[in-house]
Amino acid sequence: MPLYEILCVAAHYPEIAPIRELLRTTSNMVVSNGGVVRNIDYWGTRTLPHRMKRHQQHHEVGDFVHLTLLTSPPVLSSIHELLRVDPRVVRWQTLKTGEKLDDVVKGLSKGVALQQGEERWRELRELGRGRF
Prior knowledge:
This protein is of the alpha+beta class and 132 residues long. The protein contains three helices and four strands. It has helices at 17-32, 73-85, 101-129, and strands at residues 3-11, 36-54, 57-70, 89-98.
């Protein structure tokens, strides 16, 4: 099963109950079809970069939620359909992180090596400034 990340911008409500219900519905859809919800991060309420219109309402503030899912493509299509018709959702974006969890781990180790290389380059550059 592929690993996906979904960033969802939900309409802001004074209470958290509608957001919780949206996440519960999405999670139940994944789990009932044999998938796994690996992580749910609530990033809080933020001002949107510009005024957005969705379901005949204008939104200037939104609640940001990040989900990490292991699920099949047909289930992801049904999640997209759910998010498209749900009036609590302003925007969402899906990113396919990898075909398997091993692909993601390999990508992370490459990212760590790249970061270490950049740090080493910075150190060498700082040392070189003293010589000139």
